[in-house]
Structure formats: structure tokens, C-alpha cells
Amino acid sequence: MKVIQTSLPGVLIVEPQVFKDPRGYFYESYNEAKYIKAGIRANFVQTNVSQSAKGVLRGLHYQWPNPQGKLVSVLEGEVYDVAVDIRRGSPTFGQWMSAMLTADNHRHLWIPEGFAHGFCVLSERATFTYQCTTLYDGAADAAICWNDAQIGVDWPISQPLISDKDAKAPLLANVPLDRLPTFNT
Fold first, then answer.
1. Which residue among the candidates 35, 61, 62, 108 is catalytic per the annotation?
2. 3-class SS of residue 73
3. Hey, which end of the chain has fewer CB within 10 Å, N or C?
4. For residues 69 and 82, what is the distance between their CA atoms, to the nearest angstrom?
């Protein structure tokens, strides 16, 4: 397993070792001991799977309070995946990073608590999986505007298909401070 640091401390790209032969392939999508050795300590309590069509953009989502860490990957298709640091007081507050996650590259992205997350689908469809460190909490469910100019995510599509929730999401600057996580050194 190869772990790649990103521009956002704590957000990691994980490339599992893939064993291929004429029958197909095999890889460990999660191994607690290996993840702990890589600095990822997570107790996953919920796994979600979504399928989306080309051009769908989901995000930028987070939970507060009751934040979730997420280990995300693609089972089918190709997505442009984004994490945004929304922790008040963080040296990288409002900064973002992206990674291409595909069924072919088998990459996983670790998004710790305190980050917003979103993705857009570049293939005809994509099946996406999320392993979460806390259960979904509707009262804590929140979103930030996907095209917030102050964040400046360089999405590879200009006219995405988005939900009503995402269309109404506030700019990061308009989110009350008590609705954002705090950076802990």
C-alpha cells in the first residue's frame, strides 16, 4: 500500500497493492493495521454507496457537530474528488485539493473530520463508496456552495447536475462560526 500526502495535512491518497492476473484482480480495500501504520486511525461505523450519472456533482458536504471522517473510493467509473479544509483557525482554512478516483486506479481518499467533501462524475456513470467514522446525523448535515469563488475549486465541468440542497448551500464566508469545526493542533 502506498500513501501519498496531499497539500492538505491529514488528507491522504491511498493506493492499494493490486494483484492482477488473467482472471481479474484482487486488493485489500482496507486493512486496519496498515492504515494505522500510515497514520490513519479510524473506526468505520457506516458504509454508503451511491451511483451517479455523468455530470452529477455532489458536495461540498460535511457534518457539524458530529463530524465524519470518510474513506472514499470508486467501484465503477471515474470521479474528480475534492476535499476542502473548513476548520476554523487552520493554516489551510478554505484551501482545497483534488484527486482522480477511478475503478481502474483503485485509489482511496482519506478525508479526516473537519473537511468538506464533494465529487463530480466524469464517466457515463460512477459507483462511489464511503466508509464513515460516525453515523449519518441529519441534524448535523451541512453543505458549502460547490462553486464558492473564495474557495475556487477548479471543477472539470461547468454545468453540473446538482441537488436542490447543493444549489442552496451557503458560501463558506456566510456559514456561522459555530457551524464549522475548529482546528486542533
1. 61
2. strand
3. C
4. 14
Q: Give the pLDDT confidence of 136-155 residue by residue, as tens digits.
A: 999 999 999 999 999 999 99
The tally of domains found in the chain comes to 1
Q: What are the pLDDT digits (tens) for 99-145? A: 999 999 999 999 999 999 999 999 999 999 999 999 999 999 999 99
In a domain, 185, yes or no: no
Catalytic choice (35, 62, 80, 130): 130
Domain of 19, CATH number, reads: 2.60.120.10
Contact 81, 181 (CB under 8 A): no
Is 136 one of the annotated active-site residues of the chain? no
- Is residue 7 assigned to a domain? yes
Helical (H) or strand (E) element with 57? strand 57-63
Taking each continuous run of H as one helix and of E as one strand, the counts in the chain are 2, 13
Classify residue 157 by burial, with Cβ atoms within 10 Å: 0-12, 13-18, 19+: middle
In which domain, by residue range, is 133 found? 2-179
Residue 160: name the closest of 144, 146, 141 by CA. Answer: 146
Q: What is the reported pTM?
A: 0.96
Pairing of strands 141-143, 57-63: antiparallel
Does residue 184 sit within a domain?
A: no
Strand partners, 50: 128
